[in-house]
Design a protein that fits this description.
By secondary structure, the chain is mainly α. The protein has one domain (about 1-305). It has helices at about 15-20, 25-50, 50-75, 85-95, 105-115, 125-130, 140-150, 155-165, 175-195, 200-210, 215-225, 245-250, 260-265, 270-280, 285, 295-305; strands at about 240, 290-295. Strands 1-2 form a two-stranded parallel sheet. Helix 3 packs antiparallel against helix 4, helix 3 (about 50-75) packs across helix 5 (about 105-115) and helix 7 (about 140-150) packs antiparallel against helix 11 (about 215-225). The longest helix has 26 residues, at about 50-75. The chain is globular. The model has no long low-confidence stretch (mean pLDDT about 95).
Length: about 300
Amino acid sequence: MRDRLPTELQIDRQLLLQLSRPAPMCLLLGVSFEWALIAATIVLALRLDTLWATVAAVAFIGTRQHALLMLMHEFSHRQFSRTRAGLNDALGDLLTAIPFFITIHGFRRNHLAHHRAPATAHDPNWVSSTRLDRYCFPKSRWRMTGLVALHCLGVFAIQDAKCYLFEAGMAVKTPPATRLRQAILALLVAGAASVFQLWTVLALYWLLPMLTVLMALLYLRDVGEHFGMPSPGIEASRTMLAGPFERFLIAPYGVGYHTEHHLYPSVPFCRMRQLHEALRGRSGYKNVAVVTRGYFRGLLTETSARRPA
């Protein structure tokens, strides 16, 4: 990848080798942290047993589901292990993908096509998104805010779930080992839910956040990565520099450094900031990259601006 980049976008080879090492412990710690937050939130909401506690829990769990999907993306790039692909994918499936009804194999197949030709007719994500008015820009701030709210209400949940699971192939046409993992986890969850009478808890604190808040965050982040850009940018991608609050709730685990990820997809999330620092002094990055500050400030401004004819 590095040798195919223009010289002005290349970083030192030794630095790249250092940054590109897999980060299995960072990945497992992140996954453990997110699942612990979700479990603690559910327990607290059940103990408080009020409407407002439930609403707050659903909203917060949606943000942590989004964080888990960002870690799933890391497994798809084999950031746990590149020499033990089976173990990498098994852990990724069981801990981050299958709980959302998708698979590492299915996501990777779609995602690598996106990496090969982002924002072109050969990019399946771009093609499917640009068919929808909500991904066509410019849009006013009020319209964008309204679309995020509609996603939060689950208005587009069925349409988006159908796209992710079947049209993008993230849940289908998987190898036998993946199907076995899907079956085992489904049986374990169904058995535990039946024995401990957890079906209502699963519906309220897993499926509901997934169909509402998670969908809103996926939409907002997708727009931030590739849509409504003020210029073509590098790899037709945008880097989002957000504050601590937005990073935790909207762009966790370095996902805002999307231009950097497209340039050097071998670098794991925990070293994306170092990669950004190495690139931002390069003329090819400094003069061309689209760098936006904040989702609710910079992104809404850029997606509402009309471009010169």
